[in-house]
Design brief:
Strand order of the largest sheet: 10-9-11-13-14-8-15
Distance between the termini: 40 Å
Largest sheet: 7 strands, mixed
Shape: globular
């Protein structure tokens, strides 16, 4: 693809944030930590107009307008004078990042019919930054169509420069805890299956009425995140009970639940600022009902979800980066160590992940043109299912992505939601027997 050069400007560079530093070392020729967010509009996308909108919004996001460079000791981001290409969508999204592709950018912009999608390498940002980029881009696209869309909510003003807070690494700013947390890397149960070829994955999205899901959660006295996390745990627990391996039946089952730290600390950084809780169920303690499992998940999240614990987690994460020995290691050694560590332990402490982005808020003037949103994590290297949820209006979208051919997890999860009285509309990139 021909590269389009923008007028040269003074080179700008950024350090990778504390969370982002590990992702380049984890990447391989077949896998990178990628996630995707899509907005489905009510009219077909004009790709030329979308490309113009991309060019117009890029100056507002200097922390995304970069390429990845190697230093002696750390990776860093450098200003990219190219333009991100706007590409027709693909069947198997969230493919690995190669720094020499995509005009050097670490995010991608796709279109298909009425859908605009963006995929981000996790070294750049988390879901918060992605929501703001996608909605600012969509708003500018609608303006080019002649609609008057003001900034507000998750739509940033492209006529204003990014603030220092938006561009900052918020992790060191709020790491002040003297508490020590115990390690929790015990290996847990995983559902195995027939691996798909490299760069392929199964994607199943279930669209559910938010009011129905909320009513069911209220009936149990829990949040939506607690309800969905417990359902995913219980599905894996049921599959574990059918596993013929005695060793597998003894393993704990865990759910990883990312948390947006901006809900606890005063920052609007567009870079990574999230951590994850991991709740575990031990089948060795006895037989669990779904209600017992739901109660444990809810109690765990309410116990751990507080500023002091999160501060201790942030502080703990920074200790390795600040270690003088680690800082002195050449980048090639750091990469090798991170890669080996991830292969040995990376996903082995997590059975399933559920990331709930929450409610997407956009200006009232933009709402008539937007149908819904979908968010998905890229497939893991081991997890049988990575699950993400997002809400817009009365639409609650849950997407499960897997690297295996078998669809048992997806099928049983959505069947259980239907049994709870929640209607589900299914769509997938493959044939899926509901």
């Amino acid at each position: 693809m021909k590269k389009i050069k923008r007028p040269s400007s003074e080179k700008v560079w950024f350090k990778l944030d504390n969370a982002g530093k590990v992702f380049p070392g984890q990447s391989t020729s077949k896998w990178s930590n990628i996630f995707r967010m899509s907005v489905i509009l009510k009219e077909k996308i004009d790709p030329e107009l979308l490309a113009r909108a991309v060019e117009m919004v890029m100056p507002r996001f200097p922390c995304f307008d970069v390429r990845l460079r190697k230093g002696m000791f750390w990776y860093y981001f450098e200003k990219n004078d190219n333009l991100p290409p706007v590409l027709p969508d693909i069947k198997n999204p969230c493919q690995r990042v190669k720094r020499k592709e995509n005009n050097g950018f670490l995010f991608r912009v796709y279109y298909y019919e009425k859908r605009i999608s963006v995929e981000f390498f996790h070294a750049l940002t988390d879901a918060y930054g992605t929501v703001r980029f996608l909605n600012t881009l969509t708003a500018q696209y609608l303006r080019l169509q002649g609609h008057k869309i003001p900034p507000g909510e998750s739509v940033l003003n492209i006529n204003e420069p990014a603030t220092e807070d938006e561009l900052s690494d918020a992790f060191p700013r709020f790491a002040s805890s003297k508490g020590k947390l115990r390690g929790a890397n015990k290996f847990v149960y995983h559902v195995r299956g027939t691996k798909l070829p490299a760069h392929m994955c199964t994607i199943v999205t279930g669209t559910m009425p938010l009011d129905k899901v909320k009513a069911k959660a209220k009936e149990y006295g829990v949040t939506i995140t607690e309800l969905i996390s417990a359902e995913l745990l219980y599905v894996h627990y049921q599959m574990q009970q059918k596993d013929l391996s005695r060793a597998n039946r003894k393993k704990e089952i865990s759910v990883q639940i990312p948390v947006n730290l901006r809900n606890f600390f005063p920052t609007k950084t567009l870079r990574n600022f999230s951590l994850a809780y991991i709740d575990r169920i031990d089948p060795g303690l006895g037989t669990y009902t779904f209600e017992e499992m739901l109660k444990q998940v809810a109690l765990y999240l309410r116990y751990i979800n507080n500023e002091k614990t999160l501060n201790a987690m942030v502080t703990s994460n920074l200790k390795l980066e600040a270690n003088p020995f680690m800082r002195a290691l050449p980048l090639v050694v750091k990469d090798a160590a991170i890669g080996i560590s991830f292969r040995l332990t990376g996903e082995k402490s997590t059975t399933v992940m559920f990331s709930n982005i929450g409610i997407v808020k956009i200006p009232e003037e933009m709402q008539p043109f937007v149908d819904r949103y979908v968010i998905m994590s890229g497939p893991g290297k081991l997890n049988g299912a990575r699950c993400a949820g997002i809400t817009y209006g009365n639409s609650f979208e849950v997407t499960i992505v897997s690297l295996y051919e078998e669809m048992d997890i997806q099928r049983e999860f959505f069947r259980r939601m239907v049994r709870l009285g929640v209607p589900v509309k299914i769509e997938s990139n493959i044939l899926f027997d509901e």
